[in-house]
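Lab notebook page, bench 4
Experiment: in silico fold of construct C2
Operator: M.H.
Input chain length: 321 residues
Purpose: comparison with the prior construct
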Amino acid sequence: MAGRGAGPVAAKARADEQREFRGYVDQFLAYLRSARGLSPNTVRSYATDLSSYCDWVEREGVRPLGVSHAELRRYLAELSRARYASKTINRHLSALRTLYKWLLSEGYAKTDAAAALSSKKVAKTLPATINDADVRALLATCDLTTAVGMRDDAMLELMYASGARISEVSALDVRDVDFGQKQVRLFGKGSKERIVPLYDAALYAVHRYIGVARGELLAARKGADDGALFLSTRGNRMSADSMRKTFERHAVQAGVSGKVTPHTMRHTFATELLSGGADLKSVQELLGHESLSTTQIYTHLSIDRLKDAARQAHPRAGEGE
């Protein structure tokens, strides 16, 4: 392997560079948190993937600041042999590209060997959606005689009404919901703000939760009210992980476990908008997508649904079969 036959001086230089590289990775992660404003979950994903790469660099005796295309391809090949999915390998490669681009801009590296590497082809799969009956089944599992039940009902209604990522719902404060304007203010990736209109049923559920249940949950909090919208039974802001577990519990109770996830609600929101005649640019803004190409996948879902509706509704659809 690279550098394994070198003498003690070269081996020490290589080891020093590998330690230095780990320090640069820590700086890079801090940059993602502060300058880029990425979510804790995204930064954690970068940290996990780059830690795996650092381990490989040290195991294989690679000098990371002067890594070659061939060495990087060998790393990706090892991930492939370990049966990582193509999507996961591409995520690792994306982390390396972003890291080495930053290293080059900061003057820590003189070349960027990762820039020219191609991503693995991934079969395109359409995002799953659910129907209104499934959503009603989810909502029916919320016990509206309890504070937790009212909170969960408001959370589910808000997710379905806004297409928000679960991390965005977790970050909401009470002040972010504007009942007068019938809208919610969301903060997406990179702390980018967007406004999404809400329908009356969602506004009613959130208003009932704030007026009746939130105070009861807040009473368990030891510190002052920090304004978080959705509170845990201890009166603290619900984390995205806690919300995800809550969602999964209701999915099991509703009999739709494995069929629906928090992100399915977001997919359904986008598909419903396009099916209802919304233009792609508006849907992009409501979802908080940076690229229009990310939103375009929903046009395929919408077209497929229209085709299914036409086949079922047209009086001559079944003829000739």
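Observations: The mean pLDDT is 85. DSSP finds twelve helices and three strands in the chain.
Next step: discuss at group meeting.
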